[in-house]
Fold this protein.
Amino acid sequence: MDALNYPYIRVRDANWLKQTLLLFPHVARMRPRWAPPDDPEIETFRWAAKDQNPLLRSVNLHSQAVRNAQRRLMLKIAECLETDEAAFRARFAKEAFEGHYNASADDLWGQRLNPSAGFQIHADKIFYHFSEFLEFKDLCWAPERPHGEHYLEVHPRLGAAIMTTLAFAAARDEGLRVVTEFPDLHGQMIAAGDDNLLHRLSEGDTPKPEPINGHRIAEIIVYQRCDVGHLSAEDMVALTEERAAFARFRQALEEEAKALPPEIGNPKILQQYLDDTVNDILARWQKDRAGFTPLAKAVFGDEAINEPRSLLQKIAEKALTSEVGGSAATGTLMGGLTNHTLAGAAAGCAIGLAVHTLKSWRQVAKREAESPWKYLTTLEKGGVGFRMVA
């Protein structure tokens, strides 16, 4: 399953995009044909491919499912206007504004992240008859400070209704999960979905707390504990190959979630529960990580412990050096024993050590391969840093 970024075309933070790609193979977005350009650090993700698809791709806004969803919303707006136009306009039209956000024309994200500012939508995101209807009903207008060419502006509540309709229609059509770079601003809209949109927005209904599940725990790990600053788009392509390990990881997180209350309304208490759970997971991962003792690493080296053939070669080398064979390896005679005798004994010990070590290596490798936390090890090897404690 891929992610669908809500509600904007552009991504503000490349690190958020990289973190999201740790949870999903690709990130889709509602990007029309004549969309504004991306920042250079975001642009590279449009060309880095995984399974023939770029890491950052577009959904089909012209699909029949998306068009039908817009038509239903348009008919619902028309019905509300016919029933009580004054009440609808008092909540969703330009006259309902308390005032525009006083920001400079190039302060794109400052305008977007202010809830009292108008909501700007690229006109090509919605089909022509819908935008014509909005204009005819005086529910959209030309922005004073446009975010680019072809943008129209609507009341924030109406903008949320339009973008939520588009997002969930596209998500159902393409099998996506709706996510947002700005959960404090848009998280509740995503949690509530697109059911009964206009009524919810009109009445200001607060949605029920989102259920606690494995995905919530994964979000804490990825967005609050992972440092992806050093990763490139190419690095992200390589990391997405570990889907089997990721599947075990997600399954393990679902089991962890079962030990938590299904719903927690208090945000501070919820965060504490999630932090404690993630702290415990990361501590168990560190304890569970496969590997040799520091002494074995010192004797045989990091390269050898990762591959048994290399390890056996290292052991054989040690058997013929003073590190294992002692003076026998140097040709010194002791008590009538020849250096060949002692070297043979050392080699025999080395063979026994090799058999034991190879058996141990296989057990360790099997345990690591089956560990539910292998995905975290994969991320660390790929360059992801971890903050172990909240």
